[in-house]
Write a structure and sequence with these properties.
By secondary structure, the protein is α/β, with parallel strands linked by helices. The chain has a single domain, classed as Metallo-dependent phosphatases (Purple Acid Phosphatase, chain A, domain 2), CATH 3.60.21. It has eight helices and 13 strands. The protein has a six-stranded mixed β-sheet with strand order 5-6-9-10-12-11. The protein has a five-stranded mixed β-sheet with strand order 4-3-2-1-13. Helix 1 crosses helix 2 and helix 7 packs parallel to helix 8.
Length: 290
């Protein structure tokens, strides 16, 4: 039997705390190092699982992951919704108004790093321990759900597909800024990613959006009773069970929780925004693999 010490964290939102965005500025590396040391307080371990929403800037994410290798032997990351955001004109031009280009840049970079793995519907074996992952996405099958999503979620105007956002009128002279991002097409891609993981099987599943419908006590307090809950989870527990995963590590909900659903252990440890009560530090668990 092999024992693994596994750290887990999500929703670091680095640029809310590390304000220097230029990698050439000496403050850039120093601010990230200070965030890691003073906020995350890493104990070190065999594996680190990072559940998305790392930063709005890939260069920050790359430096963060590189520094984390000082503490953990192998790192796994997946993409959150914010990791797809193109939040200003510079980022939009850089990635040609296409969020997939930004994510692909991170996937390509991780492939050059022997101990950093980007999980996008794949499974990686670490000394017999199989870790699978995907960003996951919520399901909005009706026009009403999609209209509500456009009203309340930044995803609808900061995740882009080949075109800059444009104003769309919705009555009484009002308009909203939207992109051509197809939320349901992205959901279908994530369903295929989950199918791939089901076929390969895994011991631990890493996602951004939790692949299960969870009761109110496990939600972020501001979402309880809110019909925006549909944007924070997906009804995929049946698929999770098919993967064979014993533990699911997730993010997105900006909570610190652990609980059981259908004999699967769910954990989340979100740093969250600076004005929210998020993770105090990286948490850890021990996983025993026969």
């Amino acid at each position: 039997m092999t024992e693994f010490k596994i750290g887990y964290i999500s929703d670091e939102h680095l640029d809310f705390r590390c304000f220097e965005k230029n990698p050439q500025n000496p403050k850039f590396n120093k601010q990230i190092a200070t965030f890691i040391k003073d906020k995350l307080k890493p104990e070190g371990g065999d594996i680190l699982l990072s559940g998305g929403d790392t930063s709005h800037y890939n260069e920050q994410t790359k430096e963060y992951l590189t520094q984390m290798l000082d503490y953990y032997g192998v790192i796994f990351i997946t993409d959150g919704n914010h990791d797809r955001y193109l939040i200003n004109a510079t980022q939009q031009d850089k990635y040609n108004f296409t969020s997939d280009n930004r994510v692909q840049e991170m996937i390509d970079w991780c492939e050059t790093q022997p101990n950093i793995h980007f999980l996008d519907g794949n499974v990686v074996d670490v000394e017999g321990l199989k870790i699978g992952g995907l960003g996951n996405w919520y399901d909005l099958p009706t026009d009403g759900m999609k209209a509500h999503w456009r009203e309340v979620m930044n995803d609808s105007n900061l995740i882009m597909t080949n075109h800059k956002p444009h104003h769309v009128s919705y009555g009484y002279g009002a308009s909203m800024k939207l992109t051509t991002f197809d939320t349901q097409a992205h959901r279908e891609r994530q369903e295929k990613n989950m199918d791939n993981i089901v076929q390969e099987g895994c011991d631990i599943l890493l996602t951004h959006i939790i692949p299960a419908i969870i009761p109110d006590e496990h939600l972020f307090s501001g979402h309880v009773g809110d019909n925006a809950n549909i944007f924070y989870m997906s009804d995929d527990l049946h698929q999770v069970k098919k993967t064979g995963a014993e533990v699911v590590v997730y993010g997105h909900n900006h909570t610190v929780k652990q609980f059981e659903l259908d004999d699967i252990h769910f954990v989340t440890n979100a740093v969250a925004y600076p004005n929210e009560l998020g993770a105090a530090k990286i948490e850890h668990f021990i996983f025993h693999k026969e």
